[in-house]
Write a structure and sequence with these properties.
Elements (H helix, E strand, L loop, with lengths): L4 E7 L4 E7 L6 E7 L2 E7 L5 E8 L3 E7 L18
Antiparallel strand pairs: 1-2, 1-6, 3-4, 4-5
């Protein structure tokens, strides 16, 4: 979903660096994978095509924070406005 994002905090020697991967368009999502000592964070389309990927060495990653877009419950907002108010 547009707005999904993942923050990656990486050890850069004497300091830390923070990177973000954000789903930039509607219908896209952000996926994470850890394979062979590498953390991959990818923006993926509905059809499964990878748009862009960020790769980090797993032993340098301090934090990986996934922040999905909050979903509104169907009862949270009225279907139509009351004309008498």
């Amino acid at each position: 979903m547009k707005g999904d994002r993942v923050e990656i905090v990486v050890d850069a020697g004497d300091t830390t660096r923070t990177y973000e991967v954000v789903a930039s368009r509607a219908g896209r999502r952000v996926e994470t994978a850890v394979r062979r000592g590498v953390v991959e964070v990818s923006e993926v389309t509905r059809s499964g095509s990878i748009v862009r990927t960020a790769r980090f060495m797993a032993n340098r990653v301090l934090a990986l924070v996934e922040q999905p877009v909050p979903v509104e419950a169907p009862g949270d907002r009225p279907l139509r406005e009351d004309p008498q108010t």
